[in-house]
Amino acid sequence: MTLALMLACVLLVNVVMAGLFSLVALWAD
């Protein structure tokens, strides 16, 4: 349970970071 929750948090953070990075890349272009 805890491991699955931790994995879900890591994936969520990964998606958010990827979204922010693409947003900044588009804005900086």
Briefly, what is this?
The chain has one domain. It has one helix and no strands.
The number of domains is 1
The major beta sheet can be summarized as: none
End-to-end distance, in Å? 42 Å
Number of helices: 1
* Bulk shape: rod-shaped
Description:
The protein is mainly alpha-helical. It has one domain (1-29). Helix content is 93%, strand content 0%. The chain contains one helix and no strands. It has one helix at 2-28. The radius of gyration is 13 Å and the shape is rod-shaped. The chain starts with a helix and ends with a helix.
Descriptors:
rod-shaped; mainly alpha; 29 residues
Strand and helix map with partners:
Blueprint: H1 2-28
